[in-house]
Design brief:
The protein is mainly α. The protein has a domain of about 120 residues: Tetratricopeptide repeat domain (Serine Threonine Protein Phosphatase 5, Tetratricopeptide repeat). About 70% of the residues lie in helices and about 0% in strands. The chain contains 14 helices and 2 strands, in the order ααααααααααααααββ. A hairpin with a 5-residue loop joins strand 1 and strand 2. The chain is globular. The N terminus and C terminus are likely disordered.
Length: about 260
């Protein structure tokens, strides 16, 4: 069993290094099998003795949406270093992203008074948003923002929910903070473009899409969301003027059901 665990850890390290796409991954990929094996062996020793490094590697898996695999490694982590609050938050995030909302919520609530409280409020806000409890979500994300005012992910999610709630000025403040903190974050760019479409500033929105180099698929989605939100805000009998994916005016938009971005 010990050999099996060691082999799995070696595989995990190989995948993490190669998938990184940066200097470390490219360096390992360019080495001979013997050199690569030696590197993995060194990193394995580091992981077995460094909880911070192990959590960094697990976080890398979550960034690639490997949430179930990350939970398996969190199980292994907890056996070696039980009671780590950051590991608990990462487990709650993985459970949330795999739709185990009740389990995630329970962990988040257990972290509200500790060092991971901002992340816990953030997670509770996302769950509330997914379940249609927008005002609860705004309250939770507002508390998360108070605890971690420079966290880009929190600012972006708060800004998006403020857009859905029709609070354009609040959303503008949140999203511009996020944009200046992380000037190449495509999610922030998408939401900024959506903000300006909702504010009928199409040229500004197109300029933002160009700056963030949003792919055509993402641009189509931003315009679709703008049509959806503007359509839902139109009074009965009032004709709305909307725009297509090229910024050209169209006459009418069919109503679509709203959904919260992940």
């Amino acid at each position: 069993m010990k050999y099996v665990r060691r082999s799995l850890l070696q595989l995990f390290l190989v995948l993490s290094l190669l998938a990184a796409g940066g200097a470390a991954g490219a360096d390992v990929a360019s080495r001979s099998p013997v050199q690569a094996a030696e590197e993995i062996g060194h990193r394995q020793q580091d992981v077995e003795n460094d909880p911070e490094l192990y959590l960094q590697l697990i976080a890398g898996m979550q960034e690639k949406n490997l949430y179930f695999a990350s939970m398996a490694h969190l199980d292994a982590f907890d056996r070696r270093w039980p009671g780590n609050p950051r590991a608990a938050l990462m487990r709650a995030d993985a459970l949330r992203e795999t739709a185990y909302f009740d389990r995630a919520r329970a962990i988040y609530r257990s972290l509200l008074q500790g060092e991971q409280s901002a992340g816990a409020y953030h997670g509770l806000g996302i769950i509330a948003g997914h379940q249609g409890e927008r005002q609860v979500a705004l309250e939770m994300l507002g508390k998360a923002n108070q605890l971690a005012p420079t966290n880009v992910a929190i600012l972006n999610d708060l800004g998006y929910l403020q857009l859905l709630d029709g609070r354009l000025e609040d959303a503008r403040l949140s999203l511009h903070k996020a944009a200046e903190l992380d000037q190449r974050n495509a999610r922030v760019g998408s939401n900024l473009a959506l903000l300006y479409l909702l504010d009928d500033k199409v040229e500004r929105a197109l300029g933002i899409m160009k700056w963030y180099q949003l792919p055509e698929k993402n641009r189509q989605e931003v315009f679709r969301m703008a049509r959806e939100l503007k359509g839902s805000a139109t009074n009965p009998g009032q004709e709305s003027v909307e725009f297509d994916a090229n910024g050209q005016k169209i006459d009418k938009v069919e109503g679509l059901s709203l959904r919260l971005q992940k």
